[in-house]
Design a protein that fits this description.
Layout: H1 3-40, E1 45-47, E2 52-58, H2 71-92, H3 98-121, E3 124-129, H4 138-155, H5 157-169
Antiparallel strand pairs: 1-2, 2-3
Length: 184
Amino acid sequence: MSSGQAAAGTRARTGRVAVLLTAAVVAAIDLAAKAASEARLADSTVDLGLLQLQLAHNSGMAFSMGDNLPVAVVVAITAAIAVALAVYVWRRAPRAGWVERIAGGAVIGGALANVVDRANDGVVTDYLHTGWWPTFNLADTFLVTGFIVIALLHTRPERTADTASVQANDHTSNPPVTGHPPQS
């Protein structure tokens, strides 16, 4: 194995570990906040000005869509979306920068926290209320923020050049088939 391949392997592992650690921290923070909300906000609301802490439960998906579907269907749909997101971020992590890795981990962690919460009792615990937007939770915030960061990163003009450069210098992929043996 060449030093370039070893460095690429280390970069892949480091990127994926960063994503997993971010996802675990994000999920833990949200699940702890949900547990605290269940315990402390059952009979009260805390007014923080523009934001109120108010306990609510969402039996549907985003904006309560699908709230009439059976719980197993909603859990299956949200779990499938979470798995698809995780696969994308996992495959992208070796080539991604730190900001994209953290954003990807935030997306995975937020999705995972909502799936775990829903799997317990069929609803997602929400506790952040604005009065002008549906009540939400930190997992939703991490998901949306992560998606926005990733989308913004993908719109950068230099990203296209960076991706083309990485692909041109990627010696781990298979060379094109030309009918001739590879040159050393």
